[in-house]
From TrEMBL:
Its EC number is 2.4.2.14. One of its GO terms (biological process) is purine nucleobase biosynthetic process. Keywords: Glutamine amidotransferase, Glycosyltransferase, Magnesium, Metal-binding, Purine biosynthesis, Transferase. The gene is purF. In the C-terminal section; belongs to the purine/pyrimidine phosphoribosyltransferase family. It catalyses: 5-phospho-beta-D-ribosylamine + L-glutamate + diphosphate = 5-phospho-alpha-D-ribose 1-diphosphate + L-glutamine + H2O. This is Amidophosphoribosyltransferase. NCBIfam families: purF (TIGR01134).
Length: 503
């Protein structure tokens, strides 16, 4: 789940892009990048690391210009090499830069057809570089020296016709302006805001509303599924629906885990949806698990805290912060590589013994994916002297891979794959394990915006909304991206960087 941001301003945009990226840091902690347009030049800084580590004063000075885009990356294709950090750039036509959140499901086929029909070479294994080249090729086909808004939208329409999967995109075209678009299902989020200045209106597009609020812009609206927004260099805004049959099916996992609670996505407050998840899960425990003699509710920080607080209210049991989170360690789930993820749990979380000693504790997490966190946390609770350790998950059993921008490529790396709840409970060594029901999870988000009729919830149901995912695809994905394969790839792909900037 990467984060994207783009600004067309009336003054230098480097600092606002940087600030926006820090507010999207929870979406990607592997690499960061900013590209700006200054006249007819593009300026770039990108690399592996957190925003604060990638950009130093000397880089910020170089990022001059009033238009720019930025990206924080959590890899779901290719490797975590800096060669695949974003934004990506292609020199023709005009000079185009792009930042992408999501994952394409037909990127291999597109890469091949780009080579055969357009003689375009893709140098990395990143699906985002493919998407940029498809967009560039479609702009080329407009065959204009200066593109009108109609030309830009025609190019985006043809992108929608070819590309499958999830994509929320910001792009810049030199001499023109910024284009942002969202796939026809609106799987990944994208919002737009504005800021009035004495020189005129500035616009910002970002993955989450928190980046818009936090930089002094005012949230205007979400970009619609299939819609494209074009803001010219002069600051004129155009928008158009570019998909033939858009159907809004946003990703439910944004609400469960990815997004910040203070964001609104597609009219739903992420915080409110998490409170609702806690309420439903609390009610289920109250009704179906009367025999559990729970003394205390303890969240697994950080994402589960709001959920656990509401469970404690419903069950009328005390809520205690039994685990302290080391704030200098990042989110474990979005780290590349299982070895790193396993090691990080103990470094990140530490128990406060007095909250566990002799007590029956209910630990609450937002989700159990590989089981890396839950297994180690339960062990820590026992070591801290807990009597009984019960575990509740605000998301149902995760049993299927994700192909739309969450790095869960292999079913057999998921602890819920092919296992009943009892077996999972035994594996993580819980005294009881309670999962949310899928209908209740969906209700938790939908009740905040009744216009949303469906949610992308393939990891729970195995139903993939783009209609192009079959077992052959999933087998190929597993072969390409299982944990050991990814570790091999890291070595090979770290040498692919073509950009050549001083550090
Ligand atoms: O079953 P697993 O494979 O361990 O994945 C699930 C865990 O990973 C996430 O936490 P993370 O540490 O990434 O971030 P957080 O601090 O926002 O909770 C999520 O909140 C769960 O705790
Ligand atoms: N999580 C994402 O949105 C990833 C974007 C893109 N697929 C990449 O791997 O860089
Ligand atoms: Mg967590």
């Amino acid at each position: 789940m990467c984060g994207v941001v783009g600004i067309v301003g009336k003054q230098p945009v480097n600092q606002a892009l940087y600030d926006g990226l820090t507010m999207l840091q929870h979406r990607g902690q592997n690499a960061a990048g900013i590209m700006t347009i200054d006249g007819y030049n593009l300026r770039l800084r990108k690399g592996n690391g957190l925003v604060r580590d990638v950009f130093h004063t000397r880089h910020m000075r170089r990022l001059s210009g009033n238009i720019g885009i930025g990206h924080v990356r959590y890899p779901t294709a290719g490797s975590s090499s800096s060669a695949e950090a974003q934004p990506f750039y292609v020199n023709s036509p005009f000079g185009i830069a792009m930042a992408h959140n999501g994952n394409l499901t037909n990127s291999n086929e597109l890469q091949q057809s780009l080579f055969e029909t357009a003689k375009r070479h893709i140098n990395t294994a990143s699906d985002s570089e493919v998407l940029l080249n498809i967009f560039a090729h479609e702009i080329m086909r407009e065959n204009q020296m200066h593109l009108s808004a109609d030309d830009m939208f025609a190019a985006v329409s043809r992108v929608h016709q070819q590309v499958k999967g999830a994509y929320a995109v910001v792009a810049m075209v030199i001499g023109h302006g910024m284009v942002a678009f969202r796939d026809p299902f609106g799987i990944r989020p994208l919002a737009i805001g504005k800021r009035e200045t004495s020189q005129g209106t500035e616009y910002m597009v970002a993955s989450e509303s928190v980046a818009i609020d936090g930089t002094g812009f005012t949230f205007m609206r979400d970009v619609e599924p299939g819609e494209a927004v074009y803001i010219t260099e002069e600051g004129e805004l155009f928008s158009r629906q570019c998909a033939e049959n858009p159907v809004h099916i946003p990703c439910i996992f944004e609400y469960v885990y990815f997004a910040r609670p203070d964001s609104f996505i597609d009219g739903v407050s992420v915080y409110a949806s998490r409170i609702n998840m806690g309420r439903k899960l609390g009610e289920k425990i109250k009704k179906e698990y009367k025999n559990l003699d729970i003394d205390v509710i303890i969240p697994i920080p950080e994402t589960a805290c709001d959920i656990a607080l509401e469970i404690s209210r419903v069950l009328d049991k005390p809520y205690r912060q039994g685990f302290v989170k080391n704030r200098y360690i990042g989110r474990t789930f979005i780290m590349p590589g299982q070895t790193q993820r396993r090691k990080s749990v103990r470094r990140k979380l530490n128990a406060i013994g007095s909250e566990f000693k002799g007590k029956n504790v209910l630990l609450v997490d937002d989700s159990i994916v590989r089981g890396t966190t839950s297994e180690q946390i339960i062990e820590m609770a026992r070591e801290a002297g807990a009597n009984k350790v019960y575990f509740a998950s605000a998301a149902p059993e995760i049993r299927f891979p994700n192909v739309y921008g969450i790095d869960m490529p292999s079913a057999n790396e998921l602890i819920g794959y092919g296992r009943e709840v009892d077996e999972i409970s035994q594996l993580i060594k819980a005294d009881a394990l309670i999962y949310q029901d899928l209908d209740d999870l969906i209700w938790s988000a939908q009740v905040e915006n009744s216009n949303l009729k469906q949610f992308e919830s393939s990891v729970f149901s195995g139903h993939y909304v783009t209609g192009d995912i079959d077992q052959t695809y999933l087998d190929r994905l597993h072969a390409a991206r299982n944990d050991s394969k990814q570790e091999e790839q890291e070595q090979e792909e770290s040498n692919l960087a073509l950009y050549n900037e001083a550090d």
